[in-house]
Amino acid sequence: MTDNPKGSAAWKLDPATYFDSRVPTHSVPVPKSLYLEMPDGVRLAVDVYVPEGDAPENGFPTILHLTPYYRRFAVKPGAPPETEACPNAAKFRDTFIPRGYAMVVVDVRGTGASFGSRDSFRSPKERDDYRAVIDWVVAQDWSDGTLGATGISYVGAAADFAATTGHPGLKAIAPISAVWDTYLDHYYPGGLLLTNLAGAYDELMQALDLDQREAMRRYVYFADPNLEGPAPVDGDGNRGLLSEAISEHAANVSIVDFIREFPYRDSTLPYDPAFSSGSFSPRAYMDNMSKDLAVFSISGWMDGGYMNGAVSRFLTLGGSRRHLLLGPWDHGARIQVSPFRSQEEPEFPLHGAILRFFDEYVRGEKTGLADEAPVHYYTMAEEAWKDAADWPPTSGEGLTLHLTQNRDLTTEKAESGSVSCKPDFGFGTGSNTRYGRLQARDVRNYYASWQARSEELPRFVSDPLDEGICVSGHPVVSLLFETDEADAAVIAYLEDIAPDGTRRYVTEGLLRALHRKEVSPPADYQANWPFHSCEQADAAAMTPGEPESIRFALLATSWEFAPGHRIGLALAGADKDNVVRIPYGRPGNWKIHVGGDAASFLELPVE
Questions:
Q1: Could you say which of 26, 249, 323, 331 is catalytic?
Q2: Domain for residue 7, yes or no?
Q3: How far apart are CA 428 and CA 241, in angstroms?
Q4: Are both 355 and 474 inside the same structural domain?
Q5: Fewer beta carbons below 10 Å: N end or C end of the chain?
């Protein structure tokens, strides 16, 4: 099946039809490249694209793209003409410039051809840079004084950060696969460190920042042998400035070392007590955003934990100019992840949807977007786009399934008892998981080995469904949980079990038992699912042998369970391929108490 929205009833005017109506009117020029000096003297490399063709009397609106992944590569002499020098910015360039937008692409400080170094992941110093860049853009004679910002992952979060400068010229942002809270959405879901993520990302960034081309080519995005490091700015013919800039990158932060400084969400750097994970999370600066800012949050069902960030951004900022799109995609919407897909590549015109958004809020055109529902999401297995007025799109109490001593899931509470199990610290989900693309892996078949890998996990299974149900939102697991250790990594997997026994991974949730205390979500991270602060004051060791309530949400999903299928809930105490193993070297022994007043249960948000 396809994610193509053409003709879908979820939109009054679907994105594909809108995109078709926006016929290109301009040509893409060779960019002008220059250095901009920031307030602290650091020079940033900038590419400027001004559309070729008739210019509006007041100038062009501008799309801002702030990237650590090279604004543009130098290309080997004699390379084929189709060699793409802008693998990260190309689709944005080829969408917006021919349709009347200028575009400014920036190597953020400490990367590409820019000078300086990065003192953190998404350094707060970059926020000051972004305001200076916007100041420069609106002062140009080709600019009409308005901007939109967009991009994937780091670049999407940079759009958030640019918005937190409160610059009046930035009218709209469309962050794609971008965190709202770096701790919860990215590196420490449920307070559990994603161990391989930091290492893989660090290797990639070192290869890019220090122009280590052989190492860079191990990553599919930069594998083209015709790419020769960051492009110098115009006039730097002997690459002297470029070499000087790259030498400064040697001081860049190591993400592997840096991220371990934050075992709690409110941990601070030992040499800077004002610097916490909030310092490199957009949510911490949200009060600086303009109340008129338009925001389009975009993510997918296999996008690590980033869909939670997209949902929280949507819920937190509120207002009539917020939009949310959740598709059957991985990180960056590079792959269509539904197991029922007709092809790997998404057919959804994502850049067309973003174009309509910017046409509405940056150009000020009436595109009909105001008449559309603010939320659009794709239900896998049903293979259909839907719309909603809010998230989640469900109402009522949903479906509650109780865990039983016989390892069933039933709608009725069962007899009191318990289920004992010992976590397998050798269990792992492999590399083709929702976290693989975050590690810059070229994942194409998600959880293809799930059936074999998960065979021995303790699981609870429902009877075959008499009627199909559609689960949309955050499933919630409540366990009366006992362990003979003082901590545990509790991982829950939701499965769709077909009549022939095929088990399909649907979603998962993670929680470190240390962080089991449930609190109200803070103003800067709204959540309509169980929230755990993961802050030091709320952390508490388990008392070995004493049952305690643990309640946590699985990552958001939308999935249709067909009639005759069964619902499975599998539990694990480790994922050696992705998650830190807690407690270190001590799997412990678990006991899940079930039935009676001490019920353990699964809550499903059913449409």
A1: 331
A2: no
A3: 46
A4: no
A5: N
Looking at 119, 185, 202, 303, which residue is catalytic? 303
Whether 1 shows a pLDDT value over 90: the answer reads no
Q: How many CB atoms lie within 10 A of CB 168?
A: 13
559, 381 contact by CB (below 8 A): yes
Query: What integer pLDDT is reported at residue 375 of this predicted model?
Result: 98
Determine phi and psi for 133, rounding to 5 degrees: -65, -45
| Residue 153 bears catalytic tag | yes
Q: Is residue 433 part of a domain?
A: no
The answer to whether position 411 is within a domain reads yes
Q: Are 90 and 84 in contact (CB under 8 A)?
A: yes
Burial of 292 from C-beta contacts in 10 A (0-12 / 13-18 / 19+): exposed
| Range of the structural domain that residue 76 is part of | 15-388
Report how far residue 239's alpha carbon sits from residue 525's, in angstroms, rounded to the nearest whole number. Answer: 45
Summarize the confidence of residues 128-137 as an average pLDDT.
Answer: 97
Residues 410 and 321 in one domain: no
pLDDT band with cut points at 50, 70 and 90 for residue 270:
very high
Q: What is the pLDDT of residues 71-80, one digit of tens each?
A: 999 999 999 9
Out of 8, 114, 117, 153, which one is annotated catalytic? 153
Number of domains in the chain: 2
CB of 330 within 8 A of CB of 299? no
Instruction: Report CA torsion sign: 446, 451, 453, 459.
Output: positive
What is the C-alpha separation between 137 and 159, in angstroms, rounded? 15
358 and 457 fall within a common domain: no
290 and 419 inside one domain: no
Contacts of 158 (CB under 8 A, 6+ apart): 66, 67, 108, 122, 126, 130, 149, 151
The CATH number of residue 459's host domain is: 2.60.120.260
Q: What is the CATH number of the domain that holds 216?
A: 3.40.50.1820
Strands 375-379, 384-388: pairing is antiparallel
Residue 201 falls inside a structural domain: yes
Q: Which of 235, 280, 1, 266 is nearest to 121 (CA)?
A: 280
Q: Tell me the per-residue pLDDT of 181-218, one tens digit each, with 9 for 90 and over.
A: 999 999 999 999 999 998 999 999 999 999 999 999 99
Give the mean pLDDT of the chain.
96
* Number of neighbouring beta carbons within 10 Å of residue 218: 12
288-293 mean pLDDT: 96
Tens digit of each residue's pLDDT (9 = 90 or more) over 296-322? 999 999 999 999 999 999 999 999 999
